[in-house]
Design a protein that fits this description.
Strand order of the largest sheet: 8-7-9-10-11-14-15
Number of domains: 2
Distance between the termini: 47 Å
CATH class of the largest domain: Alpha Beta
Number of strands: 16
CATH architecture of the largest domain: 3-Layer(aba) Sandwich
Largest sheet: 7 strands, mixed
Helix content: 25-40%
Length: 427
């Protein structure tokens, strides 16, 4: 097994999308709020930031591999090239190990001990531990916005606010499927999600997205075990459920809004059972995977993968060349994984926002940072990699951009390039 795939086998993408953040205010009497021109973590020459994400859950696969490398690569380029008037001091990414109490502890440590101005990347399944605290303490945090905490005054999603917390449903999750299937009218769909705290919101979002695109959703099942419950060893009950979902018949479309293991398992089991409909998931585009793991390629054969960005393997171009070059510059493997792109994008959004404040002659304060995202400011994204996010709309809604690939003959094939403007549907 080559170096790239040895890393991959230790960290296959298991993106748990749309987890609900809860509450939990923290305060020990110390006034740490940053105000005026004397902001925490900011000097005349530097801005201190750190990350807080789920890196390695106990006994599970790393859900977002590459986060630290992606963020560090973008920050180091900004420092090398003098993009900002300030140097960014990056203290690294703390691991909450998918534990809410650890998430709360590490957030407090970053703010009260490291005294960071901002937290990025913030990509975690247990944001309930820190979301309220960070908002109370006026600490900007940027990452993949799949929890309600990333749809708040100081919490910002690099692709906008998606999932629970979003005011409208993102049709970029569903309309591409309708397009490639020749329209959704008269077509049935089944939607699978996982059973975790708040999973009903996850499931409801996807059902609404596919109904709004015109599909008849005949079954919605949110009972699949999440990563923390260990791998599913027998998908037979789920296959039987799907194969009889449409009045005793299979549906036209199977939607797996699940982690990597469950997406592979359901797709492969349905293929083996002779399912002839289309299948889609949101997590199994992993460059190098199909070539290195023929069994997984076979399991995924024919399926579609919708993603909020575009992968270098099927796109390429200046943005991807830049990301790979930046990774090499810090001595990292230029292997862009799911976490890499969101680590990089969260840092890129932060840098672009700070540059705007500097250009406008504004003090670098949390209040001014948050106010920028309440104004008519657009994060330009990275052409061909991550779509733009127009604020303030993207504070409470997804950036409405996706691309799609299909697994054909053991390879990823681009079906739809990164496209924005599919529409947002009121809940």
């Amino acid at each position: 097994m080559n170096r790239r795939m040895s890393r991959l086998s230790a960290g296959l993408v298991a993106a748990a999308v749309l987890m609900v953040a809860g509450c939990g205010n923290y305060g020990d009497g110390e006034d740490t709020k940053a105000t005026g021109g004397d902001a925490r973590g900011v000097t005349a020459d530097t801005i201190k930031v750190g990350g807080l994400s789920t890196i390695q859950p106990p006994g599970g696969q790393p859900p977002f591999p590459g986060l630290d490398d992606g963020a560090r690569a973008r920050i180091e380029r900004a420092n090398r090239d003098g993009e900002l008037d300030h140097k960014i001091e990056f203290v690294g990414v703390k691991d909450d190990a998918a534990d809410q109490a650890t998430n709360a502890k590490e957030a407090r440590d970053l703010v009260l001990n490291d005294k960071v101005f901002a937290i990025l990347p913030f990509v975690t399944q247990v944001a309930a531990g820190s979301g309220d605290f960070l908002n109370d303490e006026k600490v900007p945090f940027i990452g993949w916005g799949f929890t309600p905490s990333s749809c708040t005054k100081y919490g910002i999603g690099d692709t906008g606010c998606i999932g629970p917390g979003a005011e409208q449903v993102d049709l970029a999750l569903s309309k591409p499927l309708a397009d490639v299937l020749g329209g959704a009218e008269g077509k049935t769909a089944v939607v699978f999600a996982e059973n975790y705290a708040g999973s009903s919101d996850n499931l409801d979002n996807m059902v609404t997205a596919f109904k709004s695109a015109g599909f008849d959703v005949v079954l919605a099942d949110g009972s699949l075990p999440p990563d923390t419950a260990g791998p599913v060893t027998d998908f037979t009950p789920y296959v039987q459920e799907v194969m009889t979902a449409d009045h005793g018949n299979p549906p036209d479309l199977m939607v797996n809004n699940t982690n990597f293991g469950n997406a592979i398992g359901v797709t492969g089991a349905l293929n083996a059972a002779g399912f002839k409909g289309a299948q889609v998931n949101y997590v199994s585009y992993v460059p190098g995977l199909l070539e290195a793991a023929p069994d997984l390629a076979q399991a995924l054969e024919g399926s579609y993968i919708v993603q909020q960005g575009t992968g270098a393997q099927v796109a390429g171009g200046p943005s991807w060349d830049q990301i790979e070059s930046d990774l090499k510059a810090i001595g990292a493997d230029p292997f862009v994984q799911l976490g890499t792109i969101h680590g990089y994008a969260s840092a890129d959004m932060f840098i672009q926002a700070i540059k705007k404040l500097e250009d406008d002659g504004k003090d670098i304060t949390p209040e001014n940072f948050a106010a920028l995202f309440d104004s008519n400011w657009t994060y330009p994204g990275m052409e061909g990699a991550i779509g733009e996010a127009a604020f303030p709309l993207s504070r409470t809604n997804a950036n409405n951009c996706t691309s799609m690939v299909q697994v054909k003959d053991g390879a990823y094939v681009s079906v739809k390039e990164l496209t924005c403007g599919y529409g947002l549907e009121p809940r």
